Amino acid sequence: MPTKELVISADSHVNVPHEDWATRLPAKYKSRAPKVEKTPEGDVVVFEGKRTPLQGLAAMAGRDPRDFSDRIKETNARPGGWDPNKRMKDQDMDGVAAEVLYGGGPPGQSDDIPFRFELYRAYNDWLADFCKAQPKRLFGIGFVPIFEIEGAISELKRIKQLGHVGAVLPTTQNIKPYGDPYWDPLWKTAVDLGFPLHFHAREGITVRGERLPYEGMPKTGAWLSIGAITQFHLAAELLWSGLYERFPKLRLGHIEGNVGWIPYMLERCDQVFERHRFWTKAVITTKPSEQWRRNCFASFIVDHIGVQVRQWVGVDNFMWSSDYPHSDTSWPDSQKGIESMFKGVPKQDREKILAKNAVKLYHLPY
After folding, report:
1. What gap in Å lies between CA 18 and CA 22, rounded to an integer?
2. Which of 123, 134, 205, 213 has the most CB atoms around its CB within 10 Å?
3. What distance in Å separates the CA atoms of residue 183 and residue 217, rounded to the nearest whole number?
4. What is the pLDDT of residue 206?
5. Domains of the chain
6. How far is CA 10 from CA 48, 132, 297, in A?
7. Rounded distance, CA 1 to CA 354, Å?
8. CA 134, chain centre distance (Å)
9. pLDDT digits 0-9 by tens, 56-92
10. What does the radius of gyration of the chain's CA atoms come to, in whole angstroms?
């Protein structure tokens, strides 16, 4: 164990080496796999006729913020992002025993739906192999392709079979709102599998399907500031949709959005429930805050306010994370950040948030 105290990051990240895509796709798709071209300004991903700069903010771990850049060369990123053995050294340096791992899934989009499915399958396979290299310390969150419900359910089952501990859905899609009964077979499958599902901050940042005004301008402080709380809208809509009353055993997480905003959301939702559910003919009969504490969970990186108001959120309902190797990561100084945030917090609460909640939710071997 890296430290005497058990610390588990409930949200860390991986970066798939681009040369690996072709090796994992069926033969007929290999020539269409994402590729990287080198340029003086930084590497560019070439996919489906489009050239997209490799996202530098996904690999800034350990750099001085004055050296941050939204462009990067793949060779300049920390190898812990794709090499599980080198990652162990970085975990040990940070005092982290284990990590729950997210990735962006396949880069870019394609209008060819069967091809898109194969890209998601390739990503989930790669992540499973990554975790197998360190099976007691690396735990994957598979990526569900939301193009049509039968394929989503099929891949969700396969994600569980691969050994992943959960699955992530894009925060936005263009079929039906997630609270619509159309998606009920997906939620039922997750419940039957005993499998937690997740939404991750900044994944397709939109509000009701419309792009936020700072999309495409990642250098602006405004875009980076609002990205963490864009799940406010989705969380509230799901609480009011009746989803959690239809599936009281569903576990659904809002990841990397921090947690300081959640008490206000729950208080406001409860106020609306008490005063407006009759004339609005609300479909729910349970207070939103009660639904949240039974069904939902969230993660944070640095959130002093969230830790202080933890009782309003539910101590059993949120988890710490390092966000390695992204630009917001606390690595390699996570221990200092933990001590700052948890000063005066009772040991029982601290242990739950830093590790025990993740162990229980994901059935980790600790």
Report:
1. 8
2. 123
3. 32
4. 40
5. 8-32+84-362 (3.20.20.140)
6. 33, 18, 11
7. 14
8. 20
9. 777 778 887 788 777 777 777 888 899 999 999 999 9
10. 20
Which string of DSSP letters, residue by residue, matches 214-254? TTT-TTSHHHHHHGGGTHHHHHHHHHHHTHHHH-TT--EEE
Q: Which two tokens stand for residue 352?
A: 């739950």
CB 264 within 8 A of CB 235: no
E-strand ranges in the chain read: 8-13, 35-37, 44-47, 50-53, 98-102, 138-143, 166-169, 197-200, 206-207, 210-211, 252-255, 296-300, 318-320
Mean pLDDT (the chain, rounded):
90
Q: Are 168 and 144 in contact (CB under 8 A)?
A: yes
Strand, coil or helix: what is 171? coil
Please give the Cα distance from 288 to 259 (Å, whole number).
16
Q: Is cis: bond before 325, omega within 30 of 0?
A: yes
pLDDT at 211 over 50: no
Q: What pLDDT is attached to residue 204?
A: 46
Which pLDDT score is estimated for 220?
A: 67
Helix (H, G, I), strand (E, B), or coil: what is residue 101? Answer: strand
**Which residue carries 């975990």 as its tokens?**
91
Helices and strands of the chain, counted as H and E runs: 15, 13
